């Protein structure tokens, strides 16, 4: 049975690191559901958050392979606090008041409006972001961008 797993990786911030990590997944046929990379406060390191799916054997293999990569300093999958951000663009013809009410329930708000489009943003857990997408489905969103999970170790 496949399950979803979020893995956080601390790596040296050097050229080609992301290519080596994504190559590991591609070479072994593992899928990356979401990927997020950003430098840490100390610019010598970056934090990579990967969400993937697989059975327990596959997920264990992914962790072992990641720990073998040279630019990887730490790999963990322990308890974490995580959020996902989303940006959604609608035609200005949609009911912005109704959309504002829906988005406020998900930590969101109207981000920008121009003569053609309105852009809303929200941040919440992945499951609640999925619920938000169901709630706004009838408003016919024009474009959607999701960040993938942003996480920090809870312990």
TrEMBL record:
Q: Does the keyword Signal apply?
A: no
Similarity field:
Belongs to the acetolactate synthase small subunit family.
Q: In which pathway does it act?
A: Amino-acid biosynthesis; L-isoleucine biosynthesis; L-isoleucine from 2-oxobutanoate: step 1/4; Amino-acid biosynthesis; L-valine biosynthesis; L-valine from pyruvate: step 1/4
Know the name of this protein?
A: Acetolactate synthase small subunit
Which Enzyme Commission number(s) are listed? 2.2.1.6
Oligomer status and interactors: Dimer of large and small chains.
> Known Pfam families for this protein?
ACT_AHAS_ss, ALS_ss_C
Keywords of this entry: Amino-acid biosynthesis, Branched-chain amino acid biosynthesis, Transferase
Q: Which organism is it from?
A: Helicobacter ibis
For the keyword Amino-acid biosynthesis, the answer is yes
Q: What does this protein do?
A: Catalyzes the conversion of 2 pyruvate molecules into acetolactate in the first common step of the biosynthetic pathway of the branched-amino acids such as leucine, isoleucine, and valine.
CDD domains referenced in this protein's UniProt entry, alphabetically: ACT_AHAS (cd04878)
What chemistry does it catalyse, as a reaction equation? 2 pyruvate + H(+) = (2S)-2-acetolactate + CO2
Single GO molecular-function term?
A: acetolactate synthase activity
Domain ACT, chain residue ranges per copy: 6-80
